[in-house]
């Protein structure tokens, strides 16, 4: 099915060799791409790459080879192959993100894990008296739910104070975000408190906006925030990532979302500092104390194959014109183009201007659908999946008192947005299907209230 | 060797229709643990055959005498194929899979495990990556109790000196750091009887309670890793209860598929076992059992997966079922594994019994050939056994055993872990090196003959560990 000819298991007939590389035969054609994603369910308008990402067939093959290599002789692989393979992946990533030193790069399962690592450390500082009770953690109100829960579990539990900065949405410029953030920092410092940690999304999840992360980190430094953690779950493969430029203390991004890795793998960057960093993987193994990259490289017997395919992924992306940069640009341009097409068709708006989007765009849903709660949004999403084979997440925008909101062409308040994604496997028809589904629902006077459940 | 057939081959010739089930001490017992297993009425001709077993493990490196199932386990290709199916189901349409299938299917796996281990409620069973993760969960709970003043600084956590290296580090990271006092119980090795262990453990508990301290947690291996010995866990748990230990956590990494795992019989508060070691699961999946009526510390309600997700607060089992985007396929194949083991006569109990008998037989064979000894009596081992290496080889350090192991792997294509047993005062020419041999369904007597012959060759050639380079 893929362009390289690899048969399952046969390439491992000679042991101890690295997985075979695919035969590179120039740039991938459209039908090559179709082949690479032949395992995706046909007939589904899969416009939600942002949630779970995707993995091409040739990378899955490479993963399988690593898995078989381990299963074949696991002891030998553990002693001779695993660490080298992980260092190779970390080195590729370190170069990609412009880190100073590969020792700054650890591999973990996902951004959720990285958040636990950072917040456990912060929690220990509170427990051990390094931080005063009521010192603050500042974050955005739309931070990923897992991160918020992690703050509850590790920071609030030990007396830390949290300030949530409300992300303006729809948003028109970086300045709107920056000024809200400054207000949040003020609040965090009120009454003699110290802001110990700022958590900033590089690209928020829901609603989805590309944040002015460099500026926000600069402000944190100016305002004496002790540490900055950038949750960039969506970033790598979506937007250029230069960790030195961004300047955060901690930066995490999932590679299985936009960089074609199989589930699951994330890199976790920790800027080198003079003093001991005291970050530890929460699953403690015999490598405890040897530095986070080494701790994370062995957290007990696991399948580490998804962390080993990074070099194969780079081979894959380099078969596209412009490599990963080319992919990012095309995804962005197409997502915006489709977004504008939908906004136009529905008479609604984009949630942010094109320069504040990546390969994902938020588009207002017609007010006539009457999305009035999170439950309504979920219901609508399920309905689209079941009745139209369209997979797209729906965001309910709960307006607060005093917020004006944006009206659609019917002069109704826009209370919900879809978040469309564009990845290399998507086609225009996917978005047209969404367009027509919504248009039909409106025409049939369907609302979230009269939509049949289930 | 008395016969040319290995025990599994012998067994498949004996067409026993009997529903007797055997525990590892060879007694027939009416099993409570395996009762639920709806064993299809397989006729003997339909039991898995030798060539089918070979085929199931044809992905193993054929050059190797793979006698170390204990470290990384094994997974038959039919289970690997099913795992791949699960992986593809997710990749095919991940959102739908996440919303519609993942949680109920993980619940199914938990249900199967619950019945296998004789737990009371599904809620008591959480699925995690491995025993290392389970240890972090339990120890984090202990750490919170210290930090939040429910335990006094200096209260004790008692563990075995032979506890697994990762678990010791976890105790350091969570317990010592939060103010707990750690006591390691020294166990004898070689060991001659369960009583030796029980006596030493009692002494360890006493020292834990010295100076008015409380023993907040006893962390006990069901089967130690290196050196490997089956610990008399039921007795130790009883002693812990009598002596007022708050919580007992049994680390049974080598549990399910190796020894009898019956939660009600064992009576611990927490019990974890890997399924990828002896229960044919792909890497990696383990369960953590948490008794509902658990007392002490923060109780079951304070157990949390350290990787906090949006499921935080919904109970450990639910928290563990979603720790962010991951490949959960190893956890999803568990029900299928039951079908696999039931293709063997006696199911998992039959496998355990034959593994035990075979490993003891191979152990005796090696002892006889090398003139050494076993590390423990046969009744204190399950499917692994420690066999003394000839003194002549001059094993004198941890570094020696690692180098010797590497040498055996590279020169003889034998995979075997080796334990350095430091000599004690007054011992004359003690055995300082022990190999830990494992027996699993794919093993054959030839594997152990190769080890026997390799060591004999080394002795004949005047080999010494000191000659191995770093």
Automatic annotation (TrEMBL), chain A:
Keywords: Pyridoxal phosphate. InterPro entries: Aminotrans_V_dom (IPR000192), PyrdxlP-dep_Trfase (IPR015424), PyrdxlP-dep_Trfase_major (IPR015421). It comes from the Eukaryota. Residues 1-24 are annotated as: Disordered. Residues 14-23 have a biased composition (Basic residues). Residues 88-273 form the Aminotransferase class V domain. This is Aminotransferase class V domain-containing protein.
From TrEMBL, chain B:
It comes from the Eukaryota. The keyword Metal-binding does not apply. Residues 104-293 form the Aminotransferase class V domain. Residues 1-36 are annotated as: Disordered. Keywords: Pyridoxal phosphate. It comes from Arabidopsis lyrata subsp. lyrata. Residues 24-34 have a biased composition (Polar residues). This is Transaminase. Signal peptide: none annotated. SUPFAM superfamilies: PLP-dependent transferases (SSF53383).
């Amino acid at each position: 099915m893929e362009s390289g000819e690899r048969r399952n298991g046969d390439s491992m007939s000679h042991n101890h060799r690295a997985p075979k590389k695919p035969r590179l035969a120039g740039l991938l054609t459209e039908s090559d791409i179709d082949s690479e994603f032949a395992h995706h369910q046909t007939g589904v308008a899969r416009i939600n790459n942002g949630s779970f990402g995707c993995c091409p067939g040739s990378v899955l093959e490479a993963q399988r080879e690593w898995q078989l290599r381990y299963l074949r002789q696991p002891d030998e692989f553990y002693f001779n192959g695993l660490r080298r393979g992980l260092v190779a992946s970390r080195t590729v990533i370190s170069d990609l993100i412009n880190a100073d030193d590969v020792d700054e790069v650890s591999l973990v399962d996902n951004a959720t894990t990285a958040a636990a690592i950072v917040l456990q450390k912060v929690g220990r500082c509170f427990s051990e008296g390094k931080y005063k009770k009521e010192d603050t953690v500042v974050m955005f109100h739309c931070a990923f739910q897992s991160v918020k829960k992690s703050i509850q579990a590790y920071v609030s539990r030990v007396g830390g104070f949290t300030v949530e900065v409300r992300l303006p949405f729809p948003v028109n410029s970086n300045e709107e975000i920056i000024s809200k953030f400054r207000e949040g920092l003020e609040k965090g410092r009120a009454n003699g408190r110290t802001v110990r940690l700022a958590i900033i999304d590089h690209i928020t999840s829901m609603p989805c906006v590309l944040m002015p992360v460099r500026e926000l980190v600069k402000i944190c430094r100016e305002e004496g925030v002790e540490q900055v953690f950038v949750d960039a779950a969506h970033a790598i493969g979506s937007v250029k990532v230069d960790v030195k430029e961004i300047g955060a203390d901690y930066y995490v991004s999932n590679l299985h979302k936009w960089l074609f890795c199989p589930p699951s793998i994330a890199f976790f960057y920790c800027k080198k500092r003079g003093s001991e960093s005291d970050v530890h993987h929460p699953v403690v193994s015999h490598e405890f104390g040897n530095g986070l990259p080494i701790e994370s490289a062995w957290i007990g017997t696991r399948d580490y194959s998804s962390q080993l395919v990074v070099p194969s992924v780079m081979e894959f992306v380099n078969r596209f014109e412009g490599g990963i940069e080319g992919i990012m640009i095309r995804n962005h341009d197409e997502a915006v183009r489709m977004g504008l097409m939908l906004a136009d068709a529905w008479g609604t708006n984009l949630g942010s201007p094109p320069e504040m989007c990546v390969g994902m765009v938020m588009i207002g849903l017609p007010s006539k659908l009457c999305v009035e709660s999170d439950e309504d949004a979920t219901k609508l999403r399920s309905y689209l999946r079941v009745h139209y084979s369209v997979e797209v997440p729906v965001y309910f925008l709960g307006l607060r008192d005093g917020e004006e909101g944006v009206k659609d062409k019917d002069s109704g308040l826009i209370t919900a947005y879809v978040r469309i994604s564009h990845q290399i496997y998507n086609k225009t028809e996917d978005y047209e299907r969404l367009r027509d589904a919504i248009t039909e629902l409106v025409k049939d006077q369907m609302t979230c209230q009269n939509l049949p459940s289930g | 060797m008395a016969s040319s057939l290995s025990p599994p081959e012998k067994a498949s010739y004996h067409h026993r229709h009997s529903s007797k089930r055997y525990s590892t001490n060879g007694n027939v017992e009416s099993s409570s643990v395996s009762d639920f297993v709806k064993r299809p009425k397989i006729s003997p001709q339909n039991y898995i055959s030798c060539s089918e077993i070979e085929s199931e493990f044809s992905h193993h490196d054929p050059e190797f005498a793979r006698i170390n199932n204990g470290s990384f386990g094994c997974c038959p290709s039919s289970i690997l194929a099913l795992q791949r199916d699960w992986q593809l189901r997710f990749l095919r349409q991940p959102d739908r899979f996440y919303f519609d299938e993942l949680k109920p299917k993980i619940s199914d796996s938990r249900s199967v495990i619950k019945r296998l281990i004789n737990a009371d409620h599904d809620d008591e069973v959480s699925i995690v990556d491995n025993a290392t993760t389970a240890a972090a969960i339990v120890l984090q709970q202990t750490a919170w109790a210290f930090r939040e003043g429910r335990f006094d600084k200096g209260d004790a956590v008692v563990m075995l000196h032979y506890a697994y290296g990762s678990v010791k580090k976890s105790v350091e990271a969570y317990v010592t750091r939060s103010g707990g006092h750690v006591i390691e119980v020294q166990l004898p090795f070689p060991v001659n009887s369960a009583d030796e262990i029980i006596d030493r453990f009692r002494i360890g508990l006493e020292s834990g309670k010295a100076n008015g301290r409380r023993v907040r947690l006893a962390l006990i291996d069901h089967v130690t890793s290196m050196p490997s010995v089956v610990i008399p866990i039921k007795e130790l748990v009883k002693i812990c209860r009598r002596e007022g230990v708050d919580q007992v956590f049994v680390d049974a990494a080598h549990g399910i598929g190796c020894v009898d795992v019956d939660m009600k019989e064992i009576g611990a508060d927490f019990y974890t076992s890997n399924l990828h070691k002896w229960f044919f699961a792909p890497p990696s999946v383990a369960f953590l059992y948490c008794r509902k009526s658990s007392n002490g510390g923060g109780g079951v309600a304070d157990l949390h997966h350290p990787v906090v997700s949006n499921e935080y607060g919904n109970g450990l089992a639910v928290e563990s079922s979603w720790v962010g985007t991951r490949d959960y396929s190893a956890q999803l194949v568990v029900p299928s594994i039951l079908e696999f083991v039931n293709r063997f006569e006696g199911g998992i109990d039959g496998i355990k019994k034959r593994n035990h008998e075979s490993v003891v037989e191979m152990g005796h064979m090696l002892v006889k050939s090398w003139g050494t000894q076993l590390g423990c009596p046969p009744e204190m081992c399950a499917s692994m056994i420690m066999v003394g290496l000839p003194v002549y080889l001059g094993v004198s350090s941890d570094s020696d055993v690692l180098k010797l192991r590497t040498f055996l792997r590279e020169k003889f294509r034998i995979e075997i872990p080796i334990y350095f047993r430091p000599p004690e005062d007054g011992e004359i020419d003690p055995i300082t090196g022990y190999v830990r041999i494992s027996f699993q369904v794919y093993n054959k007597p030839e594997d152990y003959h190769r080890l026997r012959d390799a060591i004999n060759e080394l002795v004949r050639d005047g080999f010494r560990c000191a000659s191995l380079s770093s």
